[in-house]
Amino acid sequence: MKSMGEMLLSTGGGSEIVIGNTAIVRAMLEAGVRVATSYPGSPTPEIASAIASIPRERNPMYFEFSVNEKVATEVAFGASINGHLSCVFFKSVGLNVAADTFVQLSMMELIGGMVIVLGDDPGANSSQNEQDNRHYAHLSYTPVFEPATPSEVYVMFKQAADLSRKLRMPVIVRLSTHVCHAKEKVYFGPMPVHEHGNKPLFCMENGPYIPIAADALKMKRRTLHKFWELKDLLEELPVNIVEDNSSERGVITAGAPYLSLMDVLEEVEDKPDVMKLGIVHPLPKNRILQFLKAHKEVKILEELDDVLEREIKAFAYDNGLTTRILGKGDLEDWIGEYTPDKVREVLSKCWPDTFKPVKEPDSPVKLNARPAQMCPGCGHRSAFHAIKLALKDTDITVADIGCHTLGYLEPYRVGQVLLCMGHSTGTAAGLSMFNDSRRVVAFLGDSTFFHAGLPGIVNAVFNKHNLTLIIMENGTTAMTGHQDHPAVGRNFNDVSQKIPVRQVLEGLGVSNIREIDTYNQAGLKEYVEAALEEEGFKVIIARHPCMLKFTREMRKKGKKLPRPVRVGEKCNLKYVCVGQFACPSYQIADGGRVWVQEDLCIGDRSCVQTCPSQAIEPVE
Amino acid sequence: MKKYDIFLAGVGGQGIGLLSETLARAVDYSGQRVIGADTHGLAQRGGMVSSHLRVGTGAHSVLITRHSADLVVALERHEALRGMLDYLKDGGTLVYYDAVWQPLDVRLRRTAQVRNEDIEAEAARKKAKVLRVFKEDLADSRMQNVIIMAELSKAKLIPGVEKEHYTAALSDLLSGRVLEVNLKAFEEVAG
Fold first, then answer.
1. pTM higher than 0.90 for the full model?
2. For residues A291 and A122, is the Cβ–Cβ distance under 8 A?
């Protein structure tokens, strides 16, 4: 078996088939990153998996999962102003959490350099929106590299680190879902030797680092100076690609949409010229003007918002150009990932003579989607089944982010409103006001509890809100791949002090707390019913370990799982197991009989109690 | 080769990731360029998962254009039909392992389970070739992906990729007892 860790450390370099998230770790090591931080979130957690493959004692880089993206950014910032090259990475919406810290970074002299790696998610594959984080770059005068392939990820991260160190400013490497997860063979160079010192280099002389009153404006002026200087520097950086097809038409694009465009162009005769930008902020103005001048019509092909378009149109206006610039058309151009199919559709709207949209073939067969669902044995399923029995139709349930968000799906329908990580207690507090008739129940995961859940809870105690909060504690950050959190007793590197959820709640002044294992459905139902009758802020800790993690660990240890259950003769087709409890292990046979798919059932037996006919039989 | 597109589909937990990674490496061992990406949404288990593999110098995006895959490989019957409907080109090939993990709509008795005849009928409309794979005596369902890989090898369905390329790829990714068991199962079927 090949070892990822050895490949990442190899002194000679070499080539390997890797995803973008792995390629970036090799680049971090070559660039000399000393401190890296993150909070898990798709599409970036595999960056940490790649770091985890490096033997701890040979890894020159310190890495931690911080409790949230804001803290992660602060840790990386602190390391940088002490002279260490640092890197923080997280998903698209993670930047919202980190924003208060992030927007200050460009005002600071980051003497060690600092790279912010963003995993944007056009298409909202695994996020609550598809926000375009280039807006944040404009807001904060931060340069943005935008690689399209794993090879470019590798090269551009190193360029970003160089630039960051040179100008002592933050630099963004903006990835998107299918750049993070794209795989190809990447050719790595030799590993440079880095002489890392342990001398803390923080020095007030490099400042000011306190942006108060007049100094805030002084610092902004310094930032803008650097940003202007950067604009000239970037004109010369070899990161842009121009493809000359001798056409009067041109396309300006960047990132993964460029690759989609190349696929679409394989099939057409009249190919427009193409300019692919490697850095999307600030733009190489002179090069863009040159490209505009050489064409009659230029299409700006960009995923999500019209960020490039507005700036490029301004360039053209200021320079009196008559080139026809084709930007976004209808609102569909603003929505979704720019896959090859999407790019063909977008181009067919502006140049219908050259590009034709693909006609969907007519098929009589229609297949409904297969949405994500909770795993067999999931403690959340057991909880939702019990909680639903305790709720009235008029009750309002507030979801939060995590595997338990899936409770909103059929057949449970628990969780009716969702904003973002940790919103639930605050939102529920608002819903409880001027409301004597509809009871309010909020949900929160355990990793999210530490991430952004605490302020809402303190607020509920402080302002005496009337709601029930159910903390779904499964002992891990399950949805992103089982990262440890503060209540686990382990961090990324080591054993650490456990910070139990109950103790935290007590410390915050929560007096009404119940705790129960979610496999005890009767008990949980009773607890929820009781809590809903009481006034004030009530918390129920509904606990069961993540069973996917548990079964994986059992298998790894070579331990046998319990046998799958079976449906016995007492079954009189009430369909509670399959239709209400809805564990995916239960399947319907021809004729309506219920059977257990043994490849799925993990023998957890949380279903046994749900059968009104006692027909589910454990197998010894 | 200019371009040969392979779309893989299954349900979270079936081992699409390992299958796709092995095929990518096998293609690489055959000396051809390969790119690809796994796509997965929210959940760890139970949702639809797919993977795109693109062979040849004419492929750019890691995502395959709809209705243009040369080969669709599926690990589950419903996903085989979906993969064929969404991605297979007319005249392409569908290979699927005939496992059934019923989607929610079937379990809620709203729609009927997909039958093998449904797949045959759709394939006939598309003039597609179909290879159904099922191994009665397979001890561990987690090895369905290796069985289907062996069938791909036996029928030489990925141009230029030979048996030794598959086994070399498996040896890159697995070790010890797991590798041994998988190689044995592969050899048995691939011949």
1. yes
2. no
Contact A612, A574 (CB under 8 A): yes
Optimal mutation site among A183, A253, A339, A600, interface B, most CBs of chain B within 10 A = A183
Quick one: A416 and A346 in the same domain?
Answer: no
* Chain B residues within 8 A of A403 when measuring between CB atoms: 43-44
Averaged confidence pLDDT in chain A: 96
Out of B34, B46, B65, name the one closest to residue A584 (CB): B46
Q: Which member of A178, A358, A375 has the closest CB to residue B37?
A: A178
* pLDDT at residue A58, as a whole number: 96
Residue A362 has pLDDT above 90, yes or no: no
CATH of the domain at A328: 3.40.50.920
Interface of B with A in 140-179 (CB under 8 A): 141, 171-175, 179
Is residue B19 less than 8 Å (CB to CB) from chain A? no
- Taking only residues 73 to 112 of chain B, the set having a beta carbon closer than 8 angstroms to any beta carbon of chain A reads 78-79, 81-82, 85, 99-109, 111
Q: How many beta-carbon contacts under 8 Å exist across A and B? A: 173
Which residues in chain A are closer than 8 Å to B172, comparing Cβ atoms?
1-2
Long-range pairs, A308-313, Cβ under 8 A, ≥24: A308/A252, A308/A254, A308/A277, A308/A280, A308/A283, A311/A283, A312/A252, A312/A283, A312/A288
Q: How far is CA A81 from the centre of its chain?
A: 27
Residue B44: its pLDDT value, please? 58
Q: What are phi and psi of B190, to 5 degrees?
A: -70, -25
> In this predicted structure, what is the pLDDT of residue A359?
81
A119 and A267 housed in the same domain: no
- Residue in B closest to A576 by C-alpha: B108
Residue B139 to residue B108: CA distance in whole angstroms = 29
Rounded Cα–Cα distance for residues A154 and B6 (Å): 26
Q: How far apart are CA A581 and CA A604, in angstroms?
A: 14
Per the structure, how many domains does chain B have? 1
Mark whether A198 and A109 lie in a shared domain.
Answer: yes
The beta-strand segments (E) located in A236-337 are: 241-243, 249-254, 273-277, 279-281, 297-301, 324-326
| Interface probe with A: pick from B22, B60, B141, most Cβ of A within 10 Å | B60
Any bridge partners for residue A378, and if so which? none
In chain A, the percentage of residues whose pLDDT exceeds 70 is 100
State how beta strands A440-445 and A467-473 pair. Answer: parallel
- Note the pLDDT of residue A127: 94
Q: Which of residues 598-617 of A touch B (CB under 8 A)?
A: 599-600
- Residue B129 belongs to domain with CATH number: 3.40.920.10
CB B143 within 8 A of CB B181: yes
* Residue A370 to residue B48, Cβ atoms within 8 A: yes
Please measure the distance between the N-terminal and C-terminal CA atoms of chain B and give it in whole angstroms.
Answer: 26
Residues A596 and A525 in one domain: no
CATH number at residue A40: 3.40.50.970
ipTM of the complex: 0.97
* Domain membership of residue B75 as a residue range: 4-190
Quick: pLDDT tens for B51-68.
999 999 999 999 999 999
Whether residue A372 and residue B38 make contact (CB cut-off 8 A), yes or no, is no
Chain A 513-572, residues with CB within 8 Å of chain B CB atoms: 548
Listed residues A522, A554, A586: the one ending a domain = A554
Residue A379 near residue A545, CB atoms below 8 Å:
yes
Mean pLDDT, residues A371-386: 95
* % of chain A residues with pLDDT over 90: 92
Residues A218 and A290 in one domain: no
Which is more confidently placed, B191 or B44? B191
Q: What is the pLDDT of residues A230-288, one digit of tens each?
A: 988 888 888 999 999 999 999 999 999 999 999 999 999 999 999 999 999 999 999 99
Contact A401/A421 with Cβ under 8 angstroms?
yes
